[in-house]
Design goal:
There is one protein chain. The protein has strands spanning about 5-10, 15-20, 25-35, 40-45, 50, 60-65, 70-80. It is mainly beta and about 80 residues long. The chain has a single domain (about 5-80), classed as Immunoglobulin-like (Sandwich), CATH 2.60.40.1220. About 10% of the residues are buried.
Length: about 80
Amino acid sequence: MLENSALIISPNPVVDVLKISMADTPLYSVSILNMEGSVMGQYGEMVDNELDVSHLPAGIYILKIKTTKGQFIMKKFCKI
C-alpha cells in the first residue's frame, strides 16, 4: 500500500465533485466505500481526475485507489 500522503483529495468536505491528485502515479481505478465497507461506487478512467459524488448521501466515506502499478491507497473524505 502506498503512503496516504501521496494522495490529495479536495475539497474535503465535498458537496458534488471530488478532485483527486497523486504525484507521478497514474490511477487505474477508484472505489468509494461507506464506513461499513460496502462499495458505493466503482470507477475506471476518470476525466480530469474528478469524481462526481453528488449522488451519495451525507456521511464519511473511504476513497480506495488502485494505481497502474497495482498498488492501493485509501483516504477518508466527508460528503456534505
